[in-house]
Design brief:
- With 341 residues, the protein is α/β, with parallel strands linked by helices.
- Helix content is 36%, strand content 16%.
- The strands form four sheets. An eight-stranded parallel beta sheet has the order 12-11-10-9-8-7-14-13. Strands 1-4 form a two-stranded antiparallel ribbon. A two-stranded antiparallel ribbon has the order 2-3.
- The radius of gyration is 23 Å and the shape is elongated.
- It binds phosphoenolpyruvate and manganese (II) ion.
- The site of phosphoenolpyruvate (PEP) has 11 residues, from loops.
């Protein structure tokens, strides 16, 4: 749909517009109004170059595309009935709870194994554990490939699937060789399109679920879904959207809580949403309320940092991990809120 600056295009301008869209196999249908005309683009209007060429004409005000730019992740796509499983849980059937350390501490791997068992007993369905960490400071602990063995040990002991973030090709190799069940793409890589494409390709055959965090600089809904489209277009549509708070932060929280994005995603995409309240609010004491809000907004699950003894942890754990005991009550409350929807 093309809106011109003036109420109508001149004949010369209309001819130019028709010639631009004609280059992309489209036509113009003029919709005559009492005071202004609107110019509908008939045909596949998804080409970004076509839209940009139209926007480059100084007499054009706006071009609104009616069709979605994300063909595969769109709620109307052929994948609309596609379902995604993590371990025993089919997303959407009951709330998926992923819990565990922010970071596996190489100096205290026993704590991670203890947490894994404890969160399982609390009712979690999958274990998270940071093997490699995207740290703001290069002087902070960056993670270690060796910790993937500890993560897999937790998997062996609990029988639950495991989730870890990967940030480069080598980490993908290590994670896939080890058999990590879910790959996380962190907020910092949410716009790294070559990396998204690589993960899509490398997880395509096995269809490994990918937990895609939302870009932290208030990534618009369309940008978030388009990032998922990169994974799907490269062969793996098993994408789980993970809102995790955005910047600028709400004073007092780590980020600006964004669990309310879920109904907006629902309108546009068929894929499930698993909210991360831990990075959103950034303090253990606020995590339960944020989690329940997320479920009330329609989330399919939660990924929560949990630690048997948060204060002894590393990375984010001392400030934002909840204990398995708090997690257990939270999961009961999550099920109650889920039952009210
Ligand atoms: C994490 O999950 O520990 C993490 C670093 O995530 P994010 O990319 O959301 O900051
Ligand atoms: Mn963390």
């Amino acid at each position: 749909m093309i809106i011109s600056k003036a109420p109508t295009l001149t004949d010369k301008q209309l001819a130019e517009v028709e010639s631009v869209v004609g280059d992309f196999g489209c036509k113009i249908q003029v919709i005559y109004g009492a005071h202004r005309n609107i110019y509908a683009i008939i045909g596949d209007e998804r080409s970004e170059t076509m839209v940009n060429r139209l926007l480059g004409l100084e007499y054009i005000e706006r071009v609104d595309r009616m069709e979605s730019v994300y063909k595969l992740m769109d709620v109307r796509s052929d994948l609309a009935n596609h379902s995604i499983k993590v371990g025993e849980i089919t997303l959407g059937e009951k709330p998926l709870i992923i819990a565990g350390h922010c970071t596996i501490d190489p100096a205290n791997t026993g704590a991670f194994l203890e947490t894994a068992q404890a969160v399982k007993e609390a009712g979690a369905h999958a274990i998270r554990g940071g093997v490699w960490k995207p740290r703001t400071s290069p002087h902070s602990y960056q993670g270690s490939s060796k910790m993937v063995e500890v993560l897999m040990e937790a998997r062996n002991r609990t029988g639950l699937p495991v989730v870890a973030e990967v940030m480069d090709s080598n980490q993908i190799d290590v994670a896939l060789d080890a058999g990590v069940d879910v790959l996380q793409i962190g907020t910092r890589n949410a716009l790294n399109y070559t990396f998204l494409a690589e993960i899509g390709q490398r997880t395509a055959e096995a269809g490994i679920p990918v937990l895609l965090k939302r870009g932290r600089h208030m990534a618009p809904v369309d940008e978030f879904i388009s990032a998922a489209e990169y994974l799907a277009a490269n062969g793996n549509p098993n994408v789980i959207f993970c809102p995790r708070g955005t910047m600028p932060k709400l004073d007092g929280f780590r980020n600006h809580p964004d669990e309310s994005i879920t109904p907006l995603l629902r309108e546009k995409t068929w894929a499930p949403v698993v909210v991360d309240p831990s990075h959103s609010v950034g303090r253990a004491k606020y995590v339960p309320a944020c989690s329940l809000a997320a479920i009330a907004y329609g989330a399919d699950g939660l990924v929560i940092e949990s630690h048997v003894n948060p204060i002894s942890g590393i990375g984010d754990d001392p400030k934002q991990a909840i204990t398995p005991c708090v997690l257990e009550k939270l999961i009961r409350d999550v099920n109650t809120v889920w039952g009210l929807r």
